[in-house]
Amino acid sequence: LCSHRRRGPFVPLSLPRDLRARVSQRSVREMLASRLRLASKYVVGVSVKDISGSQAAVKKAIAFAQAGDKISAIHVPRMVPEMMLSSMNDPADASEEALASLLNLPSKAGASAQQKMKEAAEAEMKRLSKDIEIEYKVGAPTSDVKQALLATCRYEGANFLVLGAGEGGKGSIPPFVAGNADGLTVCIVRDHLM
Questions:
Q1: In terms of DSSP bridges, do strands 3-4 and 11-12 run parallel, antiparallel, or are they unpaired?
Q2: Of all residues in the chain, what percent carry a pLDDT higher than 70?
Q3: Which helix (H) or strand (E) segment is 76 a member of?
Q4: CA 117, 118, 124: angle at the middle one, nearest 5?
Q5: Under 8 Å CB-to-CB from 42, ≥6 apart: which residues?
Q6: In angstroms, rounded to a whole number, what is the distance separating the alpha carbons of residues 158 and 37?
Q7: Residue 168: its H or E element
Q8: Given its phi and psi angles, is residue 81 left (phi above 0), alpha (psi -120 to 50 degrees) or beta?
Q9: Which of 71, 131, 144, 168 is the most buried (most CB within 10 A)?
Q10: Strand 70-75 relative to strand 133-138, pairing
Q11: Which of 105 and 149 is assigned the larger pLDDT?
């Protein structure tokens, strides 16, 4: 006599075949429903300075992710320093277009980084035969990227933060995030540095 232990009563496997099939279908449905409730949210930090690290991070997130998980690749640009604006003779003489293009520089750089990330993610999903939902976002420019990245993870409800090690493996954001990310699993990817 074999048995299958579930929450609730003991279910012997020597039941009639049709009843055993209904129990198995119910168990599978419960398992899938619980998997959806436990689906994870991954945030991948995108860096314009470390594109190869960001690509390695999105590949690692795809490798970790299961069906039902979601990945958000987010670039939080550094705010344009005021020095750039003060280097003009007189900012009042600058045209609206010139000022708008200066202010949009971080977002444009982030958008081009996102395009490279999309290409790497699509190739990795094809290689692993996975279909994971990935969204790409560019945050508002900020002067404190480290805190903004943590705040973005909290806002997104992330369970995991995956990011590259920084330019040349010596970035300052990964160690800061690893030390200050409460309630969040941080994965710093160094595979591409070999």
A1: antiparallel
A2: 63
A3: none
A4: 90
A5: 61, 64, 65, 69, 70, 71, 72, 158, 159, 160, 161, 162
A6: 14
A7: none
A8: beta
A9: 71
A10: parallel
A11: 149
Question: Cβ contacts of residue 110 below 8 Å, gap of 6+?
Answer: 46, 48, 75, 77, 138
Distance from the first to the final alpha carbon of the chain: 54
- pLDDT band (50, 70, 90) for residue 59: very high
Q: For residues 110 and 139, give the distance between their C-alpha atoms in angstroms, rounded to a whole number.
A: 9
Q: What angle do CA 114, 117, 123 make, to 5 degrees?
A: 145
Place of tokens 């990795």: 124
Per-residue pLDDT tens for 132-151? Answer: 999 998 888 888 999 999 99
Cross-strand bridge partners of residue 95: none
